[in-house]
Amino acid sequence: MAATKLLVADFATTVKNVPFNYIRPVSDRPNLTDVHISDSAIPLIDLHQLSGPRRSHVIKQIGLACQHDGFFQVKNHGIPEEMINNILSLAREFFKLPESERLKNYSDDPSKTTRLSTSFNVKTEKVANWRDFLRLHCYPLQDYVHEWPSNPPLFREDVAEYCTSVRELVLRLLEAISESLGLKRDYIDKSLSKHGQHMSLNYYPPCPQPDLTYGLPGHTDPNLITLLLQDDVPGLQVLRNGNWVAVNPIPNTFIVNIGDQMQVLSNDKYKSVLHRAVVNCDKERLSIPTFYCPSPDAVIGPAKELIDEHHPAVYRNFTYAEYYDKFWNRGLETACCLDMFKA
Ligand code: OGA
Ligand code: NI
């Protein structure tokens, strides 16, 4: 049977089998028994010393992680535990609202700046994904906050506060990453034009046959850098030396990953790494990625300080608007969108 409900949350717990439009072909299934489990899947970096005398040591750790892993986790990041718990409960509350209340926010048009949707891009994809998501643009805040859901009642206020804090953390990380590349501290900040920030509240309901489908199939993030907050249910997996490795959640940490634009700016020194989200039989899972990005008009290309005769520019210059458009329209295919922007 095909799903008759729009959102996965509204049929997930009543079906015994995954509806056929969610079933991946045999060659493209998660093979969950082959996944490696490791507590040190990605480096954990303590940001406490970023503003102290050991700043250069932390910057070196960040640089190594960006180069070799494309992913790292951060602790002592300055975002209070209460704010983290609050945003997770608020997201949970949103996805528990009655179907009719949630659907007021529904749209399958990726150009809308506030929308609830499902899967990835229902207009272009062949197989659907076991995910519902609420996507919000959140910088500059005053341009968007009035569009956000007003239910739960504290949603706008609390999410606005969270976005503002996460942005401060991102800006500190961007300075550190600029320095780790040997660039001026404000280099990345200055290359993003007016900056942009989006977030997604991802809801992955329990799934009767998690081996047949994905929450999100393997992809790289099209933006500059992503800060992922997740609850305590595992699901994120990162590709490492050709193997999928599960990243076990650590409370009060953020997972940071390099996006495609950072790979371009760094002229391939830093890697935008494939990752995916899988689902499980028993437990719903929430994740809240913040996607920090250039504004659409920003012209992105390799930093000229990183180009020389031994390191020619790997990419041409392009606007972020051009890149973003390609990303949403081609679907989440394993081959990276970056290849279309090579010099
Ligand atoms: C994403 C993503 C992973 C997760 O939304 O781009 O990679 O664990 N999410 O939800
Ligand atoms: Ni992602």
UniProtKB/TrEMBL annotation:
Gene3D superfamilies: B-lactam Antibiotic, Isopenicillin N Synthase, Chain (2.60.120.330). PROSITE patterns: FE2OG_OXY (PS51471). This is Fe2OG dioxygenase domain-containing protein. Keywords: Iron, Metal-binding, Oxidoreductase. It comes from Xanthoceras sorbifolium. Belongs to the iron/ascorbate-dependent oxidoreductase family. It comes from the Eukaryota. Residues 195-294 form the Fe2OG dioxygenase domain. InterPro entries: DIOX_N (IPR026992), IPNS-like_FE2OG_OXY (IPR044861), IPNS-like_sf (IPR027443), Oxoglu/Fe-dep_dioxygenase_dom (IPR005123), Plant_2OG-oxidoreductases (IPR050295).
